[in-house]
């Protein structure tokens, strides 16, 4: 049985991946945990503890090979394979998610967009036409979808989550202002932008 990994560790892994990518682009070949800690504002001990959850990857007196560590963290995060994503709710937020350019480079493919607004039908985002929600069942018969992004009002997010789960989707990226409860075997990542902004507001208020 695999040792459970702390959610806090998983939250830090994308940061490591991003910083190591920047180091690679700058031509850096190896780095110590101390130097990496100074860049990331995380203690060297914390970095070593985090990476030891997955095997360590470093050598004492040498540090970390930047490209190797970047590649290994990519595998840990599942970035060594592609993931197909659909977006349901193509208003302003949905279109912003759909148009984010970095997703493609990470292996996330936006393969379908769905809405209930007939005025959006047939319009394209990145060459992919927007379809109506009532076309979702037929679409799913012919497409392998890994992740569904829900950018919907909170009162319809729950029923839509039930719908996509019934069609076999096992991972939901939820931007609605409600925490979705899902059964075992389905993964949900609730992203509440207002929560993040309120945390920032708290920090700003402490500066005054």
Q: What is the approximate shape?
A: globular
The tally of structural domains comes to 2
Oligomeric nature of the chains: single chain
Q: What fraction of the residues are assigned to beta strands by DSSP? A: 15-25%
What about the largest sheet? 7 strands, mixed
Low-confidence stretches: none
CATH class of the largest domain: Alpha Beta
Distance between the termini: 50 Å
**Which strand order do you get reading across the main beta sheet?**
5-6-4-3-7-8-9
- Number of E-type strands: 9
CATH topology of the largest domain: Rossmann fold
Architecture per CATH nomenclature, i.e. the level-2 architecture of the largest domain: 3-Layer(aba) Sandwich
Mean pLDDT over the residues: 91
- The total of helices stands at 9
Along the chain, the helix and strand elements come as HEHHEHEHHEEEHEHEEH
* Alpha carbon gyration radius: 20 Å
Structural category: alpha/beta
Please, what is the CATH homologous superfamily of the largest domain?
A: NAD(P)-binding Rossmann-like Domain
**Percent helix:** 40-55%
Report what the structure shows.
- There is one protein chain.
- This protein has 208 residues and is an alpha/beta fold.
- Helices cover 45% and strands 18% of the residues.
- It has two domains: 70 residues, Arc Repressor Mutant, subunit A; 113 residues, NAD(P)-binding Rossmann-like Domain (Rossmann fold), CATH 3.40.50.720.
- It has nine helices and nine strands.
- The strands form two sheets. The chain has a seven-stranded mixed beta sheet, sandwiched between helices. A two-stranded antiparallel ribbon has the order 1-2.
- Helix 8 links the parallel strand 7 and strand 8.
- Helix 1 runs antiparallel to helix 4 and helix 2 packs across helix 3.
- The longest helix has 19 residues.
- The protein is globular and about 60 Å long.
- It starts with 6 loop residues before the first helix and ends with a helix.
């Amino acid at each position: 049985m695999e040792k459970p990994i702390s959610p806090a560790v998983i939250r830090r892994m994308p940061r490591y991946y991003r910083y190591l990518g920047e180091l690679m682009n700058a031509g850096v070949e190896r780095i110590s945990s101390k130097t990496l800690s100074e860049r990331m504002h995380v203690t060297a001990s914390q970095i070593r503890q985090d990476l030891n959850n997955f095997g360590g990857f470093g050598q004492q007196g040498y540090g970390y090979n930047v490209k190797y560590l970047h590649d290994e963290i990519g595998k840990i995060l599942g970035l060594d394979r592609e993931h197909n994503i659909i977006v349901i709710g193509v208003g302003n937020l949905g279109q912003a998610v759909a148009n984010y350019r970095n997703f493609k480079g990470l292996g996330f493919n936006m393969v379908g967009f769905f809405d209930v607004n007939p005025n959006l039908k047939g319009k394209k985002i990145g060459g992919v036409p927007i379809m109506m929600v009532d076309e979702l069942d037929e679409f799913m018969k012919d497409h392998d979808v890994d992740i569904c992004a829900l950018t919907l009002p909170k009162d319809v997010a729950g029923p839509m989550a039930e719908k996509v789960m019934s069609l076999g989707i096992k991972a939901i990226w939820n931007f609605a202002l409600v925490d979705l409860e899902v059964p075992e075997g389905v993964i949900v990542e609730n992203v509440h932008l207002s929560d993040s902004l309120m945390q920032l507001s708290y920090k700003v208020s402490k500066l005054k």
